[in-house]
Amino acid sequence: MQVGCDPKSHPTKKWIDGHMDEYEDDDNKHKEVAGKAFCTTNDDCTIGDDLGKTLLKTGKCVKSRCQCSYASSWGGPRCTTAISGSSSTTVTSTSITKSTYGPPFGMSIGVASIMVFLSFISVMYASAKEKKAAVLLQKQMKTAADLRSHEQAKFEAERQSFASHGNDARQRPRDNYSQNFV
Fold first, then answer.
1. How far is Cα 45 from Cα 66, in angstroms, rounded to an integer?
2. By C-alpha distance, which of 51, 100, 57 is closest to 78?
3. Same domain, 77 and 119
4. Is 157 domain-assigned?
């Protein structure tokens, strides 16, 4: 006896799916099942095996046979196979959007497109705001430079007026400054 999920003595699900003609004939076609395995307790028909601590109960034992609680979501003889996630060799008429989990593909593309658009608008807004700030800063710098040149010209004019009167700061006063203390 072999123990484990994939014992060497038994073929894998992938191999069985690839060689389905060896497992079915005209009288016994392959079909997906939901429940009907033999059971003794509800834990035999749900995920979690003998632990039984899971809150998600996928099936229950009714008259010693498994019955799937959510037949559209869980399948297999013991209600432990996710229908949308399982690979089946039978051809069904459902589209890919009906056989997968999550939001529809079109909605995902729509949300992604909106996010890209909003990101682009955000970058453009930030760029325009930065450009306005740069223009304002240049105006302030020009105003400050004009004010500085005006003050420099005023200072130069005052200095010239003192120099023309002979009141040079390096020249000593004419009265006896050092003796005029009270």
1. 6
2. 57
3. no
4. yes
Average per-residue pLDDT for the chain: 78
Contact 66, 39 (CB under 8 A): yes
Residue 141 tokens read as 């710098």
Q: How confident is the model at residue 135 (pLDDT cuts 50, 70, 90)?
A: very high
- Which residue, chain included where needed, has tokens 């229908």? 83
- The total domain count for the chain is 2
What range defines the domain where residue 125 resides? 115-164
Does any domain span residue 132? yes
Contacts of 43 (CB under 8 A, 6+ apart): 49, 50, 52
The reply to whether 148 falls in a domain is: yes
Tokens of 95: 């589209």
Report how far residue 142's alpha carbon sits from residue 149's, in angstroms, rounded to the nearest whole number: 11
Tell me the per-residue pLDDT of 35-72, one tens digit each, with 9 for 90 and over: 788 999 888 888 865 554 556 788 889 999 998 887 77
Residue with tokens 């028909």: 45
Which of the given ranges, 86-90, 116-120, 172-176, has the highest pLDDT on average? 116-120
pTM of the model: 0.37
CB atoms under 10 Å from CB of 34, counted, come to 19
